[in-house]
Amino acid sequence: MSRSEKVGFKGNKSFLPSKTCLVCGKEMTWRKSWAKNWDEVKYCSDACRSKKSGSKT
């Protein structure tokens, strides 16, 4: 079985959870640095975090 034929090979980002940024609506994919607080992640960047009062609904 070649590397491309493996369904869940390491690095396949299609199997990672994702969320939508509350400000800009951009899709965010899980990152290792967010592993401990993934449930609290709401913004895709520091810029969106600073604009949180003008969030898109």
Strand order of the main beta sheet, please?
Answer: 1-2
**Low-confidence parts:** none
Query: Based on DSSP secondary structure assignment, what is the total number of beta strands?
Result: 2
Radius of gyration: 15 Å
Amino- and carboxy-terminal Cα gap: 46 Å
Major sheet characteristics: 2 strands, antiparallel
Provide an overview of this structure.
The chain has 57 residues and is largely without helices or strands. The chain has one helix and two strands, in the order E-E-H. A hairpin with a 6-residue loop joins strand 1 and strand 2. It has a two-stranded antiparallel sheet with strand order 1-2. It has a domain of 37 residues.
Task: Describe the structure in brief.
It contains one helix and two strands; from the N terminus they run E-E-H. It is mostly loops. A hairpin with a 6-residue loop joins strand 1 and strand 2 (27-29).
SSE diagram, text form:
Layout: E1 18-20, E2 27-29, H1 46-50
List keywords for this structure.
single chain, little secondary structure, two-stranded antiparallel sheet, 1 helix, 2 strands
